[in-house]
Each structure stands twice: as C-alpha cells, then as structure tokens.
User: What shape does this take?
Amino acid sequence: MIEFERVTKKYGNVIALDDVSLSLEKGKIIGVLGANGSGKSTFLKLIAGLVFPTKGKVLVDGMEVTKKISGKVAYLSELDAYYDSFTVQDMLEFYASQFSDFHKEKAHDILEFMEIQPDKKIRQLSKGGRGRAKIAFTLAREAPILLMDEPLSGLDPMVRESIVKGLISFVDLERQTIVMTTHEIDEVEPLLDEAIFLRDGKVAERVHVDELRETSRDSVVNRLKKIYKGEE
Amino acid sequence: MAGEFDTTKPIYMQIMEKINKKIVRNEWKAGDKLPSVREMAVQTGVNPNTIQRTYSELERMGIVETRRGQGTFVTENVEAIERLREQLKRDIVADFIRNMTELGFTMNDMIASLKDFSKGEDGKKQ
Assistant: This one.
C-alpha cells in the first residue's frame, strides 16, 4: 500500500505537488495522467525515494519512504541511462548485481518475448529496442511496486503493443502493483484499474476505469480533456 | 488495441459479450476450457484484473465454472446456455423495437420491414 499524507513538493519556488493526500491499493495497475508539468513524474519519484516531500509524508507499507525503498520499488526512468558499450547481457548482469529481487531467468524470458538479443550492444539497439530492454529489466524484478515513467513515450505502435503485451504477460498482480505515467492514454486505458488525474500539482479526480465507463459512459481520455477544459 | 473496445462501455462487459457470443454460436462448447486469465489478458491486451472480473461475472451467471487448480470451463448445463441464447435474442429484439418505436414505427411496420428485409437478403444471395 502506498500513502500520500498531505504531500507538497517544491523545487525552489515552483510547486510540483500541492497538498496531495491519497492511498493506492495493492495489486492494481494505476495510471497517473495529466499535462506536462502537472506533477506526474514528481509523484512517481516521491514513491521511489528519488525526491522527498517539502511537507507531508509518503508511506509504503506503513513505512516512510527513504532511499532504502529501492529494495521494494522498481523505478523505470523516462531517461536512457545505460552505458553504450554494454551488451544487453552486461546490463542484465549489472541489474542482477544491484537488486537481490532480480530474476535472471525471467529477464531472459521477457527479452525473448520482446525479441531483444542479449548479445547486442546497447548502442546497436534502436530506440524501440532500448525502450523494450528497459521494460524487461524493470519487470524482471520481483519488487512489490513497479513505477514506470512514460514507458511508451516516443516509441512506434508496434513497440508500444509489444511493451503492453509484455507487461500483461509478466506482471504478477497478486504480488505487484504498477503505477505509471503516460500520455498514450488510448493505448494504456485497457490496462488500467484506476486513473489519477493531476492538474497543477493537485489531484483533479480519481476514477475506477470501468466505473467511469459504466456510470458516466466516458473514456479516460475524454475525462482528462474535460478536466483540462474546465468543464468539471 | 484500444480501438477494439467501445469507450462508453466497461471493458469487462465487452469481453463478457464476446465470450457469450462464442458460447451461443457453439464455437466454445459445453465443458470446453476457457483460456487462463493471463492468456486471455494477453490476447485481448487487457488488465488481468479485468479478465478476472469477466470470469467471475460469467460464473455468477452460471455460464462458466471454475474448478480449483484446473481452470475455468464452459458450463455443462445446456439449459443455462439455452437461457443465455434466449436472453441475447430478447436483448437484441428489445433494442430494435425501442429504436424503431423512437422513430415512430408501429409493430406492424416492424414486422413488415423484417419480412421485406429478409426477402431482399434472399434476393441478394441468388
């Protein structure tokens, strides 16, 4: 369980998150959605222990988040941070050396599913190849919480589909929770249990995706647009 | 992927409808094993929790049965399948009648147009 208790995060004078309180249940796939600069990445980084609240508390399983949280939380960055001269296999070994919950066998299965050859150098991979490799290394950790910052961003539709299918195939929702930010809402919507809409650092709304469809006959994309147009 | 789903209806219901059709058409027969939740999720590109909900709803309706450790199967109760078939038929007919009534057609108009239409379709086939 992830809890935000009146969390405010400022970078200098800029407010990234503004007095956010909520809790996220286990075993769900949760989308954090909103415009650029709405606070999505900060939301994830606070759970990952990469940044800390200016005010308030972030708790994971009842414990306040510190840098040590990386044992429980797998974080997929929006950025590419790999050594070009490494092969995919080197990268896999590196992850295995850093995280005790990293499963090499599972990593190989996922790479195979995503059609990435382990002997390739990172620099030889296309952008889509690097995107898939990143997902594979994140999913190969048996961490209870998986955080993904824009996992589909800038990738072609075939790669996006392969990532979505890889995610469904390899996540274990009996023991894992995924929180992801994305702008590719159409594609991700069938994956989401819940959506959290952020606007200007605040939670504008939070919905169960199927309930939204059932009661308002509305899709997540439409809802987001309405929130930003101020129709709500 | 998302394009396969109607955005105004819950996804678990849309998958239920697809499965119901397969069962009513006898494509999935009484006693057949359904794909596992994971397989179905990957095939449809949908959250496994959603598929779990679909299977639970179908089980509640008596259309499928989950056997511990073995998976989910189409019910062997043919009467339940027959009831589902009747139910789907009634739903479609009710929809049709409501739409036609909204346009001001009477029941006789509807019957006549159905007969005409089916004659026309026969004509096309020849």
Notes: The first strand of chain A starts at residue 2 and ends at 11. Residues 2-229 of chain A form a domain with the Rossmann fold fold (CATH 3.40.50.300).
